[in-house]
Every structure is written in C-alpha cells, then in structure tokens.
Design a protein that fits this description.
This protein has 2 domains: 220 residues, 3-Layer(aba) Sandwich (Rossmann fold); 104 residues, Rossmann fold (3-Layer(aba) Sandwich), CATH 3.40.50.1100. Helix content is 42%, strand content 14%. The chain contains 12 helices and 10 strands. The protein has a 6-stranded mixed sheet, with helices on both faces. Strands 5-4-3-6 form a 4-stranded parallel sheet, with helices on both faces. Helix 1 packs antiparallel against helix 7. The radius of gyration is 20 Å and the shape is globular. The relative contact order is 0.17.
Length: 354
C-alpha cells in the first residue's frame, strides 16, 4: 500500500472524486495518458543511492510530447468552449509550449498564430531552422518574429489580423487550468506508486510554477506529504515567499475544480542554483547530467529545462539529501527537440559523470 501519512487538515480526497471534478471541465483529449512511471535500475546502481523513477511526461505524445500537452488539453478547451476559433501564443523561438501548441492547433483545426521572441541565446535563434522552431513550421502554423521590446504590439497585431479575417481570437491561455492539468498527473503518480508498492519521499521537477503547483495540489488533496523540489530555468526575482506563493496557487487550482486542500509550504522548495549561465545557456553540469542519463538509461533530457532539473537531482543525491533506502520520482517534462539546437555543445561536452 501507499505509506504516506495523512495531512492534519481534514480527510484526504479519494482519486475517483478528484477525477470526477477534473472531468467536469471542458477538455480536448490530446495526450497519451497515463504516461509511464519508469524505474531507472542501472542509473540507481551507478549512483549508488536511492531508487530513481522517472515519470515520462516526455511521452505525452503530441509532436514529441511534454508537459505543455497536458496544459493545452484544458486551456484550448476553455477557448473553444467560449466560441473562439483562433488562438495567439507567444514565447521564445525554441519554445516547447509553442511547438506543442502548433501541433494541437493542427489536431483541433484551430487557426493558430505564434509570436516568437528572438534574442542572442540558443533558445532565441531562428537560424538555422531546427529543434522546436522547425517543428512549428512543419505543423503549418502562422509565425511572426519579434524583438523582446515589440512582443506585446505584435501579439495585438496578430489578434487584429485574425479578427479581420473573420475569426474570434483568444489570447492569454490559463495558468490556473495548467495547474489543474497537473492535478491529473498527481493522480497518475498515486495510482502507479500503488501498483509498484512504493512510497516515494521526494519528487523533483523542472518547474517553479504551474506544473509544480498542480502536483502539489494533487498530493495535498490526496493527503500525501511528499517533499517537492522544483528548479527554475532563470534567476528568480524574489528570494523569499516562493513556497508560500506556490502553495496558494495549488489551493486555487483545487478550488477551481470545487475541492479544498491545504498545501503546506514547508513541503516545497524551488531553487535557481542550477540555472548556470542563464536561461537558454547550457552549462557543464547540465551537459554532464544529459550524458549520464542517456548513456545509462537511454532517456533524453534537454539543456534548458529537464536537463537542469536532472542535474539538480544528481547533485542533491550526491550531497546526501536523499536516504539510500527511499524512492525518488523525477518528472520528465519533455523538451527533447531542443537537443538538436544544442548539438555542438553536447558533442563537445566531456564524458558522462558517474
């Protein structure tokens, strides 16, 4: 059985009740769920530490998959339920969200437009066409490039262009619904841990926002005081209050589906220690972590998001944060196409750490 203790704030909510609450929302079924919870037996042996399990959200199935496919099931359903037939999304050129959005628009016959932010990092380059940016184009979505200073103006221009063409255009995909999507992921993890007869003590994820808050909401509803460690992809603007903020976001996500939970901030840590040189810049520790996982388990993580989170897990394990006897879950949020944008850095990296 699952060996977690119950929370002090009321009785846990059962999986079926939570699932019914989620199912009451508009939703487009885009993902291959549940994604696997995969044991990493060789990696566990090599690292000589706790048992590592990877929640394979890189396998959600839409254009190479990733955590944003879960989001889009709910955020795009909200748009279409309100009669919108066009959507504009903006992010950096190599955005995983934009790639999955472009594929979702193709799947749902939505008129989509991307406003991509160019800068001098690998994540912001449009030449050569590779990685996520290549896949955006293959999906046939409209693309506009913009400098960081011109993003908002360009988004508005795209919205007006689509409206003039007869569309009803939606912008501002919901962060709240993105968190709800990860309550669903928490339910999957709960059931999979029951099936495997494991009781994980820690979970690590490359998120300091919606995915992390959604997981926290799910575990709080279930009464599972799991320690959650999230990694930020850029330096955080505030040094304190992050855990409390995420706990509030978790409680808001539960409230959105008509349920109540108490999310404990003491169970949450978000760190920017593994950002390295900054967003979009690969550092040696991350490159080593990518090689380690690929060469021992055949699982690929990227240099911007999931790779930095995995570097965090390995480093914290080596520092003795986790007991050798426990099970740890690493949530793989995807990003595989980004590897092709970082080819030279990856090939120049040293041999994998072990």
């Amino acid at each position: 059985m699952f060996l977690f203790q119950r929370t002090e704030e009321g009785e846990p909510v059962d999986c079926q009740t939570i699932q019914r609450a989620i199912d009451a929302l508009p939703r487009h079924l885009l993902s291959h769920l549940p994604t696997p919870l995969q044991p990493c037996t060789r990696l566990t042996t090599v690292l000589n530490g706790p048992r590592i399990w990877i929640k394979r959200d890189d396998m959600t199935g839409l254009a190479f998959g990733g955590n944003k496919t879960r989001y889009l099931e709910f955020t795009l359903a909200e748009a279409t339920a309100q009669g919108y037939d066009a959507v504009v999304l903006s992010a950096v050129v190599q955005s995983n969200h934009c790639r999955q959005f472009a594929a979702a628009c193709a799947r749902l016959n939505l008129k989509g437009a991307l406003v991509l932010r160019e800068d001098d990092s690998t994540m912001g380059r449009s030449h050569p066409a590779q990685g996520n940016y290549l896949l955006d184009q293959l999906c046939g979505i409209d693309i506009r490039m913009a400098s960081p200073a011109d993003i908002n103006e360009t988004i508005e221009q795209e919205k007006q262009r689509l409206n003039k063409a007869g569309h009803k255009t939606f912008t501002g995909l919901s962060g709240l619904l993105s968190r709800v999507a990860y309550i669903q992921c928490a339910l999957e993890i709960e059931r999979q841990c029951l099936d495997e007869s494991i009781a994980p003590g820690h979970l690590v994820i490359g998120s300091g926002g919606n995915s992390l808050a959604g997981l926290l909401a799910g575990f709080a509803l279930l009464g599972r005081p799991l320690q959650v460690l999230g990694t930020s992809q850029s330096k955080m603007s505030q040094a304190t209050g992050i855990s409390e903020q995420i706990a509030r976001q978790a409680e808001q996500a539960a409230a959105h589906i008509g349920l109540t939970c108490h999310a404990d901030p003491t169970l949450i840590e978000v760190t920017d220690e593994y950002v390295g040189y900054g967003f979009g810049h690969a550092d040696q520790r991350t490159l080593d972590a990518i090689h380690l996982l690929a060469s021992h388990e055949g699982i690929l993580v990227d240099p911007t998001y999931s790779g930095k989170a995995f570097a965090c897990l390995v480093d914290q394990l080596r520092q003795g944060r986790f007991a050798d006897s426990e099970d740890i879950i690493f949530v793989h949020t995807g990003g595989t196409p980004l590897l092709f944008a970082y080819g030279e850095e990856l090939l120049e990296a040293t041999s994998p750490m072990a």
